Amino acid sequence: MFKVRINPHWEISRDEGQPLDTAVLLSLLRAIEETGSIARAAQTVGLSYRYAWGLLREAEELFGHSLMQTGRGRGTQLSALSEKLIWADRRVSARLSPTLDSLASELEGELGRTLGATPAMVRLDASHGFAVAAFLKLAGESGLPIDLRYRNSTDAVAALSRGESDLAGFHVPLGEFEAQSVERYSKWLDPKTHRLIHLAVRAQGLFVNPGNPFGIRGLDDLARPTVRFVNRQVGSGTRLLLELMLSKHAVTASMVNGYENTEFTHSAVAAFIASGMADVGFGVQTAAERFKLDFIPLARERYFFAVAADALEQPKMRQVIEVVRSPEFRQSVQQLAGYDATDTGEILTLAQAFSAPSRKQPA
Q1: Beta strands 194-208 and 339-340, pairing class
Q2: d(CA 298, CA 317)
Q3: What is the CA 158 to chain-centroid distance, rounded?
Q4: Which stretches of the chain score pLDDT less than 70?
Q5: Beta bridge partners of 204
Q6: Most buried of the four, 105, 177, 249, 306, by CB within 10 Å?
Q7: Are 280 and 220 in contact (CB under 8 A)?
Q8: What is the pTM of this model?
Q9: Residues 6 or more apart from 170 whose CB is under 8 A from it?
Q10: How far is CA 343 from CA 67, 189, 265, 293, 304, in A?
């Protein structure tokens, strides 16, 4: 089985001049940020001091601004421009990684089929999430081949109902919005023919900058005209939940400054805020922590893999269940900020998952 990795790559040029490849420059800047020294940073990334210094000077000439700040007793520090470049790179990665991961999975399958080396693969369509990423990592390590397509929750369960995938990753909030959310998926999920594999419980809420400079406390504050918001894309489960919650608070889309600004993942929303382009967003706690943002919890939800009931005993699906129930996966999920792996690996009917008597309320 071949493993393809595709990483985001970008260049900068002025007018029609020679473009500056940011890959090496960004590695050097991140190392300077960590070490406080150009010499130590160059050694860390495997560059000669002379080459590193020349690269910094080339970049400063291109931008017309300094990338470094030096001071007695402070060592070498990054300028505001350097910090903006690093955040820009993190934002590019956060926005494009799901698309590139899906493309890499497609290429793996095509290469395998061309060379006659493709084992039977599990076709996974899933809403992007940190528990899913942990599952994919462990599945790969266990030799379980996954044909991945990241897509929103409604598209994922629709693909499962059409027989285009074997697993569909989607999420449903606990509590008062559960019934309305489940109703959105009922068009594609059949209680007789589908089962649910419980992946995790996770926290959703508001992302704000460190120290919460705008004093945001809840969804009502999104209607303040001075607060800039960044949203998730239309059709995502997170946006559907947000719309339900805003409706309860009588906050309409037209009242929210930036409601039309959208990102594809929780990490991309967090990167958008951390880079200074918005003041608040809505998503899972893990993304806020990874981008050093403050988090205001508002809801908890369960993430499931939906699967055809008659596929549960197939060898590849048994491997899926083994990975999900493994101690390694449970530990990986439990270590994610805002995630709970207590019920990870449970297999449920739709009635067991969503009927009122068995519903688990948030702690």
Answers
A1: antiparallel
A2: 34
A3: 21
A4: 1-2, 71-74, 113, 115-119, 356-363
A5: 284, 299
A6: 306
A7: no
A8: 0.80
A9: 126, 127, 153, 154, 156, 157, 185, 237, 303, 304, 306
A10: 49, 21, 25, 28, 11
